[in-house]
Amino acid sequence: MDEPFLMAIVQxxxxxxVVLAVFxxxxxxxxxxxxxxxxxxxxNMKVLRRLPLDAKxxxxxxxxxxxxxxxxxxxxxxxxISRHIDKQTVSAxxxxxS
Length: 98
Description:
Subcellular location: Bacterial flagellum basal body; Cell membrane
Helix content: 40-55%
InterPro entries: Flagellar_biosynth_FliO, FliO/MopB
Protein name: Flagellar biosynthetic protein FliO
Structural class: alpha+beta
Organism: Mariprofundus ferrinatatus
Keywords: Bacterial flagellum, Cell membrane, Cell projection, Cilium, Flagellum, Membrane, Transmembrane, Transmembrane helix
């Protein structure tokens, strides 16, 4: 084999390895940032149940900040159907006001 040809292949493989390493590092960094952002903003939120109504519509029960929310999901968007205060929150509020 010709030495310049071999050198070109080695350089190409090295350049590809550098590009893939940079890409893997960026993916790792973005996932880590996404996880920390979710922990900051979503630690009080839990999706309790999801009930599929058909292929495109579903109901989701979410618990957030001591309240239960029933949310309807469709291709056109999201609709808050109802909001209920948790029983423990109600009893704690009643005992504070007494």
